[in-house]
Amino acid sequence: MSIDPRLKERRRVVAEDRARRKVSRLLKLMVAIVIGGLVAWVLLSPWLSVSEVATTGVVSSDTYQTLTEVGAVAGTPMIFVQPGRVEAALLTDPFVGSASVVRDWPDRLIVQIEERTALAWVETADGWAHRAVDGVALPSPESPDDALAWVQLPDLPGGDAEASRDVLGGLAFVQALPESLRIGTTIKMRVNGEFWGTVSGYEVRLGRGVEMEAKARSLAALLAEKPPRGSILTLIAPAHPAVTPPS
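Above: the chain's sequence. Below: its structure in C-alpha cell form.
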C-alpha cells in the first residue's frame, strides 16, 4: 500500500517542526540556566556582599553582638540580609528603643539605633531597677544609688510596670524636672493613692499620677522663688500651686 506523497511530505514537515520546537525549548532552558547562574554568581560575589556596616547611636546596647548573630556583617551577600529580621533582633535588647536597618546597594549596610537611657531608679514588688522614660527596665545593679531620682511603688507587680500609669507618671515627672533638681529627688505612693515627694529638700504633694510633666514645671518655677525651708509644696493642680509654710 503506497502513501500519498503529499501526506508523506506533511508528516515530514510536522516531524521537523516538532524537532525544532524541542531544540528551541532546550536552548531556551540552557540559556535560562546560564543567565540564572550568572545572576546568582553576581549576587553572591564580593561586589554585592556587605563590605561596611555603618552604625550610629550605639553606646550601651549589644548591637554589634546582635548583628554578628544574625549575619549582618562584612562578607555576607546583601540579598541574605533581611532588614526587618535584623531590626526585630535588635529590638530584643532592652537598651534599643528603635532600630532602622537599610541596605545601601551595592555593598553597604546602614544601622541606626536610638537607645534608651536610665532615667530613674524604680522600685516595684520585684525590687529596684533602672527604667527608661517609657517604663522599660534596663540592666542595673540590685540596689539603688544616689546618681538618679527614685520612684517608689513597692506594691506594684514588676510585670505591670511598663504599662502602669503611676510608673509612667513618675518617670514623666522626673524627666520634666531640670537636671539640677533630679539628683536626690524621691517620689513615692502613699496609702491614699497620692504621690508625695522630696525635691531639693522640700516635701511636695503631687496628688494622682496625672499631668506630671506640668507639675514638674510648676514645681521648678515655685522653687525658683525660694519658698521658706520646711514648707510643704502642693501641686495637685499644677496651674495653682500652693505653699504651706512651716508651723
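The mean pLDDT is 89.
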